[in-house]
Amino acid sequence: MFAYIIRRILQMFIVLFGLSVLVFIMLKLTPGDPAVIMAGLGATPETVQSIREKLGLDRPWHEQYWRLVSGLFNGELQAMTYHVPVWQIIFERLPATVELGLFALLIALIVSIPAGLLSAIFRNTLVDYGVTTIALMGISMPVFWTALILMIIFGVTFRVLPISGRGATIGAWSFLTLDGLRHLVIPSLALSSVLMAMNARLTRASMLEVLRQEYIKTARAKGLKESVVLLKHAFRNAMAPVLTNIGLQINTLFAGAVLTETTTAWPGMGRLMVEAINRRDMAVVLGLALFLAAVAQVLYLLVDLMYVWIDPRISYD
Amino acid sequence: MRKFLLFVAVLGLAVAGMAAEPRYGGTLVIASSQTFKDLDPRVCNDVYSMYVINAIFDELVTLDPKTLKPAPYVAESWEISEDGREIVFYIRKGIKFHNGEPLTAEDVAFTFNWIADPKNASPNQTEYEWLEKVEIIDDYTVKFIVKEEWAPFAPALTMETTGIVPKDTVLEMGDEAFNVNPVGSGPFKFVEWKRGEYIKVVRNEDYWLTKPYLDEIIFRPIPELATMMLELETGGIDIADNVPAQDAKRFMEHPELGVVIQQVPSLSYFYLGFNFSKPPSNDIRFRKAVYMSFDATAAVDAVFQNLTGIRAYGPLPPALWANDREYLKTIALQEDDEKAKALFAELKEEGVIPPDYTAIIYCPPDPRRIQISTVIATNLIENGINAEVQPLDWGPYLDLLYRSEENPEGEYDMYVIGWSGGPDPYNFLYFLFHSDNATVGTANNFSFYKNERVDTLIQYANTTLDVDIREPLYIAAQRIIVKDIVHIPLYHYIETRGVRTRVHDYYVSPVAAMEIVSPFNNVWVEEE
User: Fold this and answer.
1) How far apart are CA B229 and CA B27, in angstroms?
2) Radius of gyration, alpha carbons of chain A
3) Given this model, what pLDDT does residue A273 score?
4) What residue segments make up the domains of chain A, in order of their start?
């Protein structure tokens, strides 16, 4: 197992190196010179050139790449347009996205698992059709649209929740204050809608699969109460794919966060990514891409290790 | 249209006039449609960060909103030498920065010399291309020396956008640290910048001009306009810097929502430009046919709903002297599909328009410009020319228009873009039409229009500061430009802001600044 973990960590570095080269090349090939964007309309060639030199954009590509990557590793790399080190700006924005993502996930699980369960138990009834239809809407409706609808209902019509922004915080966290918690409701509800729908459908499918297994028949034949059969035998086993899938949903969460954060003016990493790409701030884009990739890799590793714990038949040795 | 705007403005003032007496206290929340980038006036070149800079820093001169002429601010007066190469500013005594240091000639000279020095790579360097250096005469007097080729026309007006920074503090803190912890001498002191969330400033109790009424201002970036409008409607923000036409209409029709729409014609010009370097757009018959293919006035009215933009007939905005609007309106081409079709057929027959030709209209990622481009493309198709609209992000768009040494003719025929300039015709005509600005790399004359007569008229107008001499020269230049159909003038944007009725003494600046406390106003808010 230990050797496996070491191997995976080494693989992780190879993936990150490959990704850094890929992102760098994509940024260099994307039309739009950062110096031209910074100088704005009407700038003279001299102004653009002096900005280019200041940012090191006149150096050969390999030098630029090395300066960015080594700067990221030793923590000294300055963002091109934010006037602070890259890691500072990323870690400033991190708590907002983590908070939003976790709350969205929590809401999604609280709603989707019972919904999926009911849908499976009452298959082909009105309950099932209701849950499936709502889940389909959740998947189909863009997150920014859901956010706007929630704002209009709770912020404008009933005026019970703030429309945008993050509100008061204690340290870096807004859920610790009542004001912050109120600000968290609309964005996390909006973001949860996609996860909710996906997880409800997955729970339903997984539960239906388990209910067809022989051991469920055996449990019923033994005369166990239906609730025990469903909750103790079926539900526990049906949850394995749902829970492991959660670890893999970080990509969906982040993609949703980009839209949710922009619509609700939530100051997280998703919005930072959009801003940095628009400004062609290569240092921040590369830092964010590598950071997110590293987090995803660690989560995938944890999910793989969880399999061993869930299913003793699996071994990596 | 102008009468209507005046009515709106008067209505706004009337509503303001009905309120109680000014009071001290309260927080003003201003929403910006873009995130803030720089708080150091020496490097800031985006209008959104300027909202905050206006509150923290004082400028050498300010812009009188009524006359659009420079008015005294940190400089109480100035003298321009006869040859126009020297401008001496007399600085007001007793102004202090927020850290207690006095504002002196040394700070003024440091601010402007730093920007003009190419080694500092300030994006604002271009604005001060005319500046040779600033000399200190005594503690409260400075002399700006204008480069010979720019004299006597000294574009000193651009100085209304540059706040004075404290030299010693900047040197002590370093440029990057100062940019995120600015110290100015303005009506409000910087407190906190939570990036992506808000910037907070509080009242400068010792402000030299007057005591600001407001306790504090919160500047919030809200990138999604729909969200910003909901915040404005519910009182989450007090001022929205950008209101789409349909929302402006809604707020005007529903005064019970508590929002007043304030407008002022901005110093801007938006147009469809033609590439003069290659066929078919270098042929005047093609340009004429495109112009006659669509009803420009109807297109502008439809997109702006007669509220946030007015039809342009020439490059100078109506608020600017020498605009020649009435005459240019009489020579503007009208939609005439038959003539346009005939011209296109003629050009096709002569081979100027190749058989497989598709007219691509490039435009930036701005919904309004995309809509107008789509109207033009649709009309071209109806007149027998394949056409499509290609919106591009700003980076790739500027790359396209700046051209490259490998492809100096450029890869475009038609483009839709805009220009905002200072309150002088020079800022529009020189940058957009003079051959000096048709250079591969960073053009502003994206059409690469080169006309010796136009160059001479613009240059000659620059040899004097006498408006009576300059005005006819600029008018003559415009008439040539419009007759040559270098551009199809589309619209001038009307700066439109949404302001909650509890806010008083606020006015919209024609140069998109955010004036909260100035020699002309001191904003205050009613208690909620």
Assistant:
1) 19
2) 24
3) 93
4) 94-310
Out of B179, B230, B396, closest to residue A163 by CB = B230
* Structure tokens belonging to residue B4: 């209507």
Q: Distance between CA atoms of B430 and B191, rounded to whole angstroms? A: 41
Alpha helices for chain A (secondary structure H): 2-29, 34-39, 45-55, 61-74, 86-121, 126-140, 143-150, 178-211, 214-221, 226-228, 236-248, 250-263, 269-278, 282-310
The strand pair at B75-80 and B86-91 is best described as antiparallel
Question: In the structure encoding, which two tokens stand for residue B361, read together?
Answer: 């209209």
∠ CA B19-B23-B28, nearest 5°, is 90
Amino acid, single-letter form, for residue B303:
V
- pLDDT tens by residue, B61-115: 988 888 878 889 999 999 988 888 899 999 999 999 999 999 999 999 999 999 9
Residues B173-226: pLDDT tens digits?
A: 999 999 999 999 999 999 999 998 999 999 999 999 999 999 999 999 998 999
In the DSSP assignment, the letter for residue A299 is: H
Q: What crossing angle do the helices spanning A282-310 and A236-248 adopt, rounded to 10°?
A: 160
Which of B50, B130, B195, B429 should one mutate to test binding to chain A, selecting the residue with the greatest count of A CBs within 10 A? Answer: B195
Q: What is the mean pLDDT of residues B248-266?
A: 95
In chain B, residues with a C-beta closer than 8 Å to the C-beta of A142 are none
Q: Do B197 and A36 touch (CB under 8 A)?
A: no
H or E stretch covering B106: helix B105-116
Q: How far is A168 from chain B (nearest CA, A)?
A: 11
The pairing of strands B358-363 and B414-420 is parallel
For the ranges A66-70, A111-115, B419-423, the lowest mean pLDDT is seen at B419-423
Task: Name the residue among A310, A314, A316, A294 with its Cα closest to residue A12.
Answer: A294
DSSP state of A234: I
Find, in chain B, the residue whose alpha carbon is nearest to that of A39.
B123
What pTM did the predictor assign?
0.89
* CB-based contacts of A208, cutoff 8 Å, min separation 6: A120, A123
| Residue B65 Cα to chain centre, angstroms | 14
Regarding an ipTM greater than 0.85, the answer is yes
3-state SS string for B159-178: HHHCECCCHHHHHHHCHHHH
DSSP conformation class of A173: B
Q: What is the CA radius of gyration of chain B?
A: 24
Handedness of CA A83, A88, A91, A92 (dihedral sign): negative
Tokens representing A211? 């209910």
Distance from CA of A198 to the nearest CA of B (A): 27
**How many residues in chain B?**
528
Partners of B521 in the β-ladder: B518
Query: For residue B179, which residues of chain A lie inside 8 Å, CB to CB?
Result: 83
What is the distance of C-alpha B22 from the center of its chain? 31
Q: Do A39 and B196 touch (CB under 8 A)?
A: no
Kindly list the residues from chain B whose CB atom is less than 8 angstroms away from the CB atom of residue A41: 398, 419, 444
How crowded is residue A196: how many other Cβ atoms within 10 Å of its Cβ?
Answer: 26
Q: C-alpha angle A237/A240/A244, rounded to 5°?
A: 175
Q: How high is the pLDDT of residue B90?
A: 96
* Angle at which helices A126-140 and A178-211 cross, to 10°: 120
CATH code assigned to A94-310: 1.10.3720.10
Of the partner residues B118, B221, B222, the one whose CB lies closest to the CB of residue A50 = B118
* B299 has a pLDDT exceeding 70: yes
- Residue of A87, A94, A163, A262 to mutate, interface with B, max B Cβ within 10 Å: A163
Long-range contacts of B469-478 (CB under 8 A, 24+ apart): B470/B322, B470/B425, B471/B321, B471/B322, B474/B316, B474/B322, B474/B425, B474/B429, B475/B322, B475/B324, B475/B327, B477/B429, B477/B433, B478/B314, B478/B315, B478/B316, B478/B322, B478/B324, B478/B328, B478/B429
